[in-house]
């Protein structure tokens, strides 16, 4: 390798402005690259958490922590390039084209991972409280559901190899506004009949074989828990369960069912629905503060982005 090579200070500053941490590969400082790369990840996580829970008008609501490195990296890279020791051995990545190549490869891997495997989402409302509260983050597993998007742009659609199960918390594109992502819990599966009356769910499972006896309707059981206060409202909480699914739901004792606003299905009375093939019936855990399948209908399989696997 060359022993007398010296990086151009102006180019180091430009790379620092555009690629931040990767500029330090160009000036032959891999340890600083690792330091700034990890700093970028840490600041991005803190920034995401800070803004997801920021109240409107807070002083930090317009602050973007990763932008700090957009200022620091070009200046630091420029200074180090000016003071570069030409006696050190030049590594393979210490060139503008190698630095840009590394940056492009990492960005491509990151984008592909987010598009096809896992993507974080923020919870903007209390419709899934107490399971998911405003400001929390969720990690969604996307592989196998066939609906692959990146930052709102459709990249690929394939035949789904995975299907959500009852009780799963899923992210999906709203059937009437596909540009909006919703987070709800799967309550009823394709072919099932669901009745929601007196704030209680009854499910009639689909008959799996024509000659076998059909299962009788089963009602979700509810066990009263301690009251919770959400956004200054005192709500009743229950542990709702069916089969192996158990989770906590909230109900407002002062709010009646809005039967006149329920989604109307031909041949069905209000509060009763038959889930079509390839669709799902979803609801929010904060039952009286959730716009869900009761009001706008069913979620097509093709609209499902993935299943929530981790929250923080």
- The 3D shape can be described as elongated
Helix content: 25-40%
Contiguous uncertain segments of 5+ residues: none
The assigned structural class equals: alpha+beta
Counting DSSP H or I runs of 4 or more residues, the number of helices is 6
Give the beta-strand count: 17
The SSE order reads HHHHHEEEEEEEEEEEEEEEHEE
Largest sheet: 7 strands, antiparallel
Overall residue-averaged pLDDT value: 91
State Rg.
26 Å
- Give the N-to-C terminal Cα separation: 47 Å
Question: How are strands sequenced across the largest beta sheet?
Answer: 1-2-17-5-6-15-16
* Beta-strand content bin: 25-35%
Report on this structure:
- The model has no long low-confidence stretch (mean pLDDT 91).
- It is built from 6 helices and 17 strands.
- The chain is an alpha+beta fold.
- Helices cover 25% and strands 28% of the residues.
- The two termini are 47 Å apart.
- The strands form 4 sheets. The protein has a 7-stranded antiparallel sheet with strand order 1-2-17-5-6-15-16. A 4-stranded antiparallel sheet has the order 9-8-7-14, with no helix packed on it. Strands 10, 11, 12 and 13 form a 4-stranded antiparallel sheet that branches.
- Helix 1 packs antiparallel against helix 4.
- The longest helix has 23 residues.
